[in-house]
Specification:
- This protein is α+β, with helices and mostly antiparallel strands and 190 residues long.
- The chain has a single domain (7-189), classed as 3-Layer(aba) Sandwich (Aminopeptidase), CATH 3.40.630.
- The protein has 6 helices and 7 strands.
- The protein has helices at 17-24, 42-48, 51-62, 90-94, 123-137, 165-170; strands at residues 7-11, 67-73, 76-85, 107-114, 142-145, 174-178, 184-189.
- It has a 7-stranded mixed sheet, sandwiched between helices.
- The longest helix is centred in the C-terminal third of the chain and has 15 residues, at 123-137.
- The model has no long low-confidence stretch (mean pLDDT 89).
């Protein structure tokens, strides 16, 4: 018999920073990313990998400049999702593949990260629902994601940090653009 999952979430704050560190692990998620990949130019991001990205994320959360939610499974820190107005993700503006679809003000979901011990349990579906709720509380009217549409069922975790297309479909998002087969743009109006 599978134990039931109780999922809850909180906005990321200085008070639950240690929970986010627990989710990411000491390396900071995907090789020292600390969820900063789209928030700065690639060259700066590469120079800051690791501890400098960690400090940037921590100070951004403490100052309320970086938004996200920490997900909990049965009370234990299990997941993270970063979001904010698209303009906060400077690298999105540099991407031809993920360029704006129109001029509507959208909030972008840049990362869905589930700690290793909680993967393959449907947590991303719960996390996506939480982040949509939180975005609405913050005044967002449209939430946009950039999931991976894999060509095969085996995708390395490092490539899946934006989530999978199936999760967005189950979360009532609608495809609004697909400039390459594996990277669609999905939206949900709140």
């Amino acid at each position: 018999m599978i134990n039931p999952i109780t999922f809850s979430w909180l906005p990321a704050t200085q008070d639950n920073w240690s929970d986010l560190v627990s989710v990411f692990g000491e390396r900071g998620g995907r090789g020292g990313c600390w969820c900063m990949r789209w928030r700065m130019p690639r060259e700066q991001f590469e120079k800051q990998k690791g501890e400098r990205n960690r400090r940037t994320l921590e100070s951004g959360i403490a100052l309320g400049k970086i938004k996200g939610v920490v997900g909990y499974v049965n009370g234990a820190p299990a997941a993270w999702c970063s979001l904010g107005p698209r303009s906060e993700f400077t690298e999105l503006g540099e991407s031809d593949l993920l360029a704006p679809v129109d001029d509507k003000p959208v909030w972008s979901i840049s990362c869905l990260f589930v700690a290793r011990s909680f993967r393959r349990q449907g947590i991303n579906d719960l996390l996506l629902a939480a982040v949509v709720e939180y975005a609405g509380q913050q005044g967002a009217k449209i939430v946009e994601g950039y999931p991976l549409s894999p060509g095969s069922p085996k995708v390395p975790v490092a490539a899946a940090w934006t989530g999978f297309e199936t999760v967005f479909i189950r979360g009532d998002f609608v495809e609004v653009a697909r400039r390459v087969p594996m990277r669609p743009i999905y939206r949900r109006e709140i």
